[in-house]
Amino acid sequence: MNKKYSVLLADLDNTLLDFSASERIAISRLLEHYGGATEKALIDYPSYNDSLWKRLEKGEITRDQLVKTRFAGFFKRHGINGDGGEAAFLYQKYLSESAIWMDGAEELLLKCRGKIKVYVISNGIATVQLPRVRSSGIDKLTDGHFISEIIGYNKPDIRYFEAVSGKIPGFDRDKTLVLGDSLTADIAGGKAFGCDTCLFDKDGKYNVTENIKPYLLIRKLSELYKILDI
Fold this sequence. Notes:
The protein is of the alpha/beta class. The chain has eleven helices and six strands. It has two domains: 139 residues, Rossmann fold (3-Layer(aba) Sandwich); 77 residues, DNA polymerase, domain 1, CATH 1.10.150. The protein has a six-stranded parallel β-sheet with strand order 3-2-1-4-5-6, sandwiched between helices. Helix 10 links the parallel strand 4 and strand 5. The model has no long low-confidence stretch (mean pLDDT 94).
């Protein structure tokens, strides 16, 4: 690598923290609460939820619509009796209580200290993400965190990145690397804003024929040591 980066904008879920693991814990607890914890429902929820977040990224629904209607629709699919609004509250509570590190994430942040500024970027809900950032210790290991609900825009909206950059002293997009696991949110947004991007594809799912192409591609977070020169 010939480039020298001074800022890393790192996605939170499935980049620094294992959202998939926390999601399974939270949805299991929720379904058990309503007596509908079937394996079919547990398997279905991640893709169902992801489809709603993709619609949010495209501006097809609002965050409020996602939160308020998510479980009403999901319960109807699986014949579960329960109040969607109450379920949304309980699910967010359960999710906020779970913060599991991705392999190598804590070590990466420790290596960055004093060498490169790291800021967390997340499309999550503030009441869920802020407790996870604090309980994991990420708030102590990074230089700041930007939750889309608080910023007012979602990734990949360029206005999200404009707002974030305006809060970082001496921000230089040419010296900033955007790291994340989502092509449609992190990589698309970072590219649109004019920053180099790095796709964290730990399971090797990225297809080179994709329309959205990252500047860099890694399978392990430790690969960033050389890229960031840390």
